[in-house]
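Weekly modeling sync, notes
Attendees: S.R. (lead), two postdocs, one rotation student

Agenda item 3: backlog of single-chain predictions. S.R. asked that every request posted to the team notebook include the full sequence so nobody has to chase files. The rotation student volunteered to paste the first one in as an example of the format we agreed on. Action items at the bottom.

Example entry:
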Amino acid sequence: MPCSCAEWRRWIRPLVLVLYALLLVAVLPLCIWELKKDKVGTHSKAWFIAGIFVFLTIPISLWGILQHIVHYTQPELQRPIIRILWMVPIYSLDSWLALRYPSLAIYVDTCRECYEAYVIYNFLVFLLSFLSNQYPSLVLMLEVQQQQPHLPPLCCCPPWPNGEVLLFRCKLGVLQYTVVRPVTTVIALICQLCGVYDEANFSFRNAWSYLVIINNMSQLFAMYCLLLLYRALREELTPIRPAGKFLCVKLVVFVSFWQAVFIAFLVKVGVISDKHTWDWDSVEAVATGLQVVVKGRSCRSTARLHGKTVIVTGSNTGIGKTTAIDVARRGARVILACRNKQRGEAAVVEVKRESGSDQVVFLPLDLGSLKSVRSFAETFLRTEPRLDILINNAGVLLQGRTEDGLGLMFGVNHIGHFLLTNLLLDRLKECQPSRIVTVSSVAHNFGKIDFDCLNTHKALGPGTSGIITEVLQIYCHSKLCNVLFTHELAKRLQGTRVTCYSLHPGAIRTELTRNTSSLVRFLIWPAKFFSKNTVQGAQTTLHCALQEGIEPFTGRYFSNCTVREVFNKAKDDAAAKKLWELSERLSGLQ
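Predicted structure, as returned to the notebook:
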């Protein structure tokens, strides 16, 4: 007896899903193995895998589109749904073609991005079509409802009047994106042809950064208007459950963009690098690649340090203590330079226990006191005959003043280390080859040096309000000082075998924020789930201190155990020299 249409529809979908699953599980690994045997390049392998996923997504999307076309019973509602569903195959083909033909990416992306705006518009049409069919007197119904206040961050603005005004402004808010997105896309295409687009490079000297800001502001306002409409008509929209559909549309349209931004950020901080890639030679190679993405690269130096002396500032906690443990294990005599005597002596016990070395001593050093820095240097030079590695690790994220009247972050993060390095420089030259390692941060990219403020206030920022944005901004300024200091120091050490490096250790779960406000700690807390532990965070410091063969990169900035390019402001010769001369005056070296 032949199956009815209803019975056929019951078993065809499970059958298709099973066939697709078998294809993915059986055919894909077989094809990859064949590609490996034929020694096909990594790019071709990636393109092939992407093609498999395109093959999976397009039939599934077309199946949904065909279902609506076959059962075309509510044209007003189904037309926008069909247009939205076309977004998935368009995205898939766009990504696949861009991967295979990178030079065509800007053109296919232009078409796709214009369609994005059309998708958002069709979602609004879908909602309004449903409401118009169900509630012919929608405007009158809205007018009698309670007025909807604006959501943050627009909560201070007067609410929009209910009724026709609310509907019109929500429509206008969505429609502006359908205009802005195609316009900025065409501008991007023109900028690309003119060579000033520079996609995925975080710099305000290219067009991409500005267009990203404009697009995101427009996107967010369109999303905001849709959300405001949903809040006003939540009960009326309940039958079609729009929240899930809204999230799906939002994910399809925006996740690929933020994915691209995230990848660009990983490239910027050095997690992804064209100089460090891996192929499918073994399972271990894949595991290594995943390890690099998750927790960063490791220092591969096998150097032994017997007979050598290392100073590590801020070594009673965090990556400083972990660095001290590692160099002590390698046989070095380690000086823990810390402000707090009790915690410093406790760290000596722990470092000795973890390293198995008894060549670990504590010397008090308060980088916020020029007197303490001079006392430390005097004691060290009197009692220790060698200095082979100086690791300027200590740092604070805290507003305030030092006992010498300097801004606290400027004084501790820069001036203290500047003075310490200069006081110990002759001993480093006597023991050359030797190294100076200064722990900076990727935050230096957001910093600037206001020399007028430094001359006037002896600080990197005039305020002492403790506002979180101000505190973080001054921290960024202090980290830029570290990079500029290393840049200038390398120039002054030319002709010697003393080399110096600055570095970004990564986002690390340390006690850097222990003295900050509860608000700062609360805002930073979620980042802990994506942060390195102290062992992972110490690897770039150890790489700069120990790795053989990096001497030609003296004065350079490292991240993820790799030398990195920096913005012009971080290698500005004039600014570095001016900062050095100002630091000499403020530290009393002149």
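Discussion: group reviewed the output briefly. Strands lie at 309-313, 333-338, 360-364, 389-392, 434-439, 498-504, 557-559, 562-564.
Action items: rotation student to repeat for the remaining queue; S.R. to check formatting next week.
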